[in-house]
């Protein structure tokens, strides 16, 4: 058994073309080396930062932790707040990030070995 204290996991700056609008950091909570079936991480968005439209090969579950966020498909934007849980089916085109006036953090759960395809450039 492992007990992971999120506030003790170092934040790493995310420098990827998948993100836009401001700074984003990531904390790896469970890596593929630690868990056989899934990956778990905290993603922290500065106000106005988000990822671009993308698709995962596995389902994704987001757990809103702090701030105010947006999770969007091509047809709808959902405003989310701490305590909200978002299920995104495999293959669904979507993006998520912070509102323009609030930072936002979520925990993301994905199947081990999943891949992400950026579809907005």
Describe this structure in words.
With 121 residues, the chain is mostly beta strands. It has one domain (25-118): Jelly Rolls, CATH 2.60.120.10. 0% of the residues lie in helices and 49% in strands. It contains no helices and 13 strands. The protein has strands spanning 12-13, 19-20, 24-30, 38-45, 50-51, 54-56, 60-67, 69-72, 77-80, 85-88, 95-98, 104-111, 116-118. The chain has a six-stranded antiparallel β-sheet with strand order 1-3-4-12-7-10, with no helix packed on it. It has a three-stranded antiparallel β-sheet with strand order 9-8-11, with no helix packed on it. The protein starts with 11 loop residues before the first strand and ends with a strand. The model has no long low-confidence stretch (mean pLDDT 96).
Question: What is the average of the pLDDT values?
Answer: 96
Rounded to an integer in angstroms, the radius of gyration calculated over CA atoms is 14 Å
- The number of helical segments is 0
Query: What name does CATH use for the topology?
Result: Jelly Rolls
Q: Tell me, what's the shape?
A: globular
Distance between the termini: 41 Å
User: What is the N-to-C succession of helices and strands?
Assistant: EEEEEEEEEEEEE
Main β-sheet, in a few words?
6 strands, antiparallel
CATH architecture: Sandwich
Query: Care to count the β-strands?
Result: 13
β-strand percent reads over 45%
**Count of domains:** 1
What is the CATH class? Mainly Beta
């Amino acid at each position: 058994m492992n007990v992971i204290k999120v506030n003790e996991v170092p934040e790493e700056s995310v420098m990827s073309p998948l993100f836009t609008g401001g700074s984003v950091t990531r904390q790896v909570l469970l890596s593929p080396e630690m868990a056989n079936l899934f990956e778990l991480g905290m993603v922290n968005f500065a106000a106005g930062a988000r990822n671009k439209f993308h698709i995962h090969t596995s389902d994704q579950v987001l757990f809103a932790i702090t701030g105010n966020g947006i999770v969007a498909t091509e047809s709808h934007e959902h405003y989310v707040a701490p305590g909200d849980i978002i299920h995104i089916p495999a293959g669904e085109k979507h993006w998520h990030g912070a509102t323009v006036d609030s930072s936002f953090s979520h925990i993301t759960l994905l199947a081990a070995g999943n891949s992400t395809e950026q579809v907005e450039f």
